[in-house]
Amino acid sequence: MLYPDPTFILLALAAFAYLGILLVVIRTGRLKEYSIRLLLAFNLLSLAWTVIQGLLRLQQLNNIQGFDIFALERLRVYGLVGVTVLFFHLTRAFQGKQNSAWLWWVVGVIFLSAGIVLYENFFRLAEQFVILNSPVLSRWLIAFTILVIGWAVYLFSSVWMTLGLYRRSTTPLHRNRNKYWSAAVILAVVGQSLVLSQNILFGNLLQLLACLAVTYATLTFHLPDVRLAVRKMTSYLIMTLLTVALYTGGFYAAQLFFQTSQGYSPILIGIVLSVAIAILFNPLLEVVKRFVDRLISGGRLDVHHALSEYSMSISSVLDLEKLASVVVSVISDVMETTSGALVTITQEPDTEDGKPGSIIFRPISGTGQVQPDIRLAGDGPVVAYLQREHRPLTQYEIDLLPRFKSMDPAERECLSALKMDVYVPVYAKDQWRGVLALGAKASRDIYFDEDLSLLQTLADQTAVALENARLYDDLKQRNSENERLNLELHEANDQLSRLDKAKTDFINIASHELRTPLTQIIGYNDMVGEMIRDNSLEPSAGISMTESVRKAARRLEEIVETMFEVTKLDTRTLELMSSPVSVASFVTTAIDKWNKGIEERKQTISVRGLANLPTIMADGRRMTQVFSHLIQNAVKNTPDGGAIRITGRVIEDPGKDGGPMKQMIEVVVADTGTGINAEDLERIFEKFYRVGSVLLHSTGSTKFKGAGPGLGLTIARGIVEAHGGRIWAESSGYDEENCPGSRFHVLLPVNYIENQAAPQPENGSVREMVH
Ligand code: ADP
Which of 50, 126, 225, 723 minimizes the number of CB atoms within 10 Å of its CB? Predict the structure, then answer.
């Protein structure tokens, strides 16, 4: 007859419990999975460990002959290390870590076998290690220490990993799952420490609970919320206490008041109290639950109120961004969510090999911001779920369920970067149209089933509003596209009419400009002919008339030459003959050409700052041409008595597009003339462009407001740009009375490298020749 020892009874019961757990693990039929096989091994070893301890206990109590109590003791320590190594690997598997597991296995086996070899003394070592004739350490103590260190290392690593994961987990569902593991770790640490310190009863009890928690957490996907469990337990505890208080209080009061009265029966009182409690129980339970809920999480949802407020708020919103912010703010009011987004989806066309096209997720956050698009595979598991399941999908499911294992890693990363807890599909006419994505709750609670079904209802209500908003958005986009096209059309029209004007101007100018000298030539020629026939031609008159013919012919030649220059610009056949030249020299040559006209018009011309400028590489003849045009224009557009100023300096210029600084020479030709309107400042550089009516112009080369063919500035710009420079005009506007004047800036590079590709001028270009 064995002594009924509670420790032994508990160990026996624990062994049966382990058998039960093993049965459950086997019945899952998932033995192919690494974590399930580990779980099986873990529980098997725990069972063996418990059996060893049971036998040990039996031996300690009964001292049966032939049982080696020390062998059992040693087995117990080996078992402890083995269980802990397995627990560590289970923790890794639970966290989804697969990499370099073998290394941890090897280290574990080394610890265990080193301990066993020393403990069992396979190599027949001395019992005591002796240094300098005094025994220092006993063999078994070293063996025991190695095993305990192994145990501690593996247990500590499990604790460390669990803590790390707990700290990293952001979503409440993951945190909830980790809570179960944390509980298992705490139970294992305390239980095993107790066993080591010989507290077998409690140690094994806690170890069994740890095994239960580990098995439950590994096998179950939808783990009940720990807070919910605490809430329920608190409610029931309060209810039990209340019931007991009511019952005993009732009895006591009945005793006090009715004991002396006739017909007093405790049974009757008992029945009355039971009936009262039975009637009161349910309403009371509700009150208690609500009280506990408020105490723990600050109140429950009022579904009806939430629904009506939601549909009212979103019914009139047409703008997508606005809709997103209204939807998210109403839901966060109801569920205390911290963030959210309304996601619109667009399906790309199917691929050539028949695969469904990708789905473009465009999340619009609650703050109304459109976040970067996410591309989801059209035949991926997330899309398949949202298209068909008609119920919310949690990030937790995406992270852990096997059906999402095949997901593209980039897709997975993009979705987790959104930091959303739940995705609720929105359907319109059974077609998947969008998603309502919600972040964690402020309370750090998980989304309970009732929350998820409310969210699905809200998402269903969003469908119409989302459709309207999408249509409206479409319309808005089309509208802005139309506006853009209109603008482009307008610009094209403008350009066209300017081209048309240029063409007409060209015909007018060409005929006007060419006809005047031609008429003069014909006229003088007729006169000379007539006078010769009459014999009335005086030599002096003849000379003056032929001089006039020569002038007119010269003018004709000039006009044709200018037109030819522009054609060269257009056909890119203008040649540059670059050599080192001083700016002062070509500017002075250009001025000399117009000195007579300036004198006639009583204008003054001054030059400042050119003498000290560095020599530049340029085609001196072409440069003279540029300044000749600029000075001629200044003379023509400045009234009699006006002033023309030419200044020069060296500047640092970042170029048109703000590139690196370059040293440039800036020459400004300023006048006190009529000025130019802002809208004409650029256009005057276009071919044949002239300000004002073409026919108002006369052909005089220095006359006030005298015109040329509208090509001077075009040529000037072509030449300057061919030298790597820039030219532009500045003026405060056209005013013939007040004459605000104009300034023409010419920038030329100091170190222009001749053989570099010349920038293409807008109105034509120049072929570079290196000399
Ligand atoms: P044009 O042969 O007519 O002078 P340009 O190309 O040289 O052609 O000049 C184009 C137009 O720019 C001129 O018709 C004139 O109206 C305007 N313009 C050029 N220089 C000046 C200036 N210094 N002041 C005012 N207007 C100017």
Answer: 126
Task: Decide: helix, strand or coil at residue 367.
Answer: coil
- The sign one gets for the Cα dihedral 247, 251, 257, 262 is positive
Q: 681 CB under 6 A from ligand 1?
A: no
**343/288: higher pLDDT:** 343
> CA–CA separation, 467 vs 459, rounded Å?
12
Is the distance from the beta carbon of residue 709 to the nearest atom of ligand 1 less than 6 Å? yes
- Residue whose Cα lies nearest atom 20 of ligand 1: it is 633
The tens digit of pLDDT for each residue in 339-394 reads: 899 898 888 888 888 888 889 988 888 876 778 888 898 888 999 999 888 889 99
Q: What percent of the chain has pLDDT over 70?
A: 91
Out of 633, 668, 676, 735, give the residue to mutate to test ligand 1, the one with the largest number of ligand atoms within 8 Å of its CB.
633
* Structure tokens, 56: 């040990």
Q: Round to whole Å and give the CA distance between 382 and 277.
A: 51
Tell me which residue has its CA closest to atom 13 in ligand 1: 690
**Mutation pick for ligand 1 pocket among 566, 569, 685, 690 (CB with most ligand atoms within 8 Å):** 690
How many CB atoms within 10 Å of residue 467?
Answer: 16
Judge if the beta carbon of residue 741 lies within 6 A of ligand 1: no
Is pTM beyond 0.85? Reply is no
H helices of 401-448, in order, are 409-417
Name the percent of the chain in helix, strand, coil, to the closest 5. 60, 15, 30
Q: How many angstroms separate the CA atoms of 475 and 319, rounded?
A: 11
The half-sphere exposure of 390 on its side-chain side, counting CA atoms within 13 A, is 7
Indicate the DSSP class of residue 379.
T
Name the helix (H) or strand (E) containing 726: strand 726-731
- State both tokens at 439: 């972040």
- Rounded CA-CA distance 314/72 in Å is 72
Residue nearest to atom 14 of ligand 1 (CA): 690
Minimum mean pLDDT among 7-16, 47-56, 500-509: which range?
Answer: 500-509
Which residues are CB-neighbours of 246 under 8 A, at least 6 positions away?
Answer: 273, 276, 277, 280
Residue 459 class from Cβ within 10 Å (0-12 exposed, 13-18 middle, 19+ buried)? buried
- Verify whether ligand 1 is closer than 6 Å to residue 684 (CB atom): yes
Tell me 392's DSSP state: -
What distance in Å separates the CA atoms of residue 635 and residue 640, rounded to the nearest whole number? 9
What is the rounded distance in angstroms from the CA atom of residue 163 to the CA atom of residue 155? Answer: 12
Angle, alpha carbons 66-72-76 (nearest 5°): 170
Tokens (6 digits) for 532: 């010769």
Contact call for residues 559 and 707 (beta carbons, < 8 A) = no
| H or E element at residue 285 | helix 266-297
State which ligand 1 atom lies nearest to the alpha carbon of 689. Answer: 10
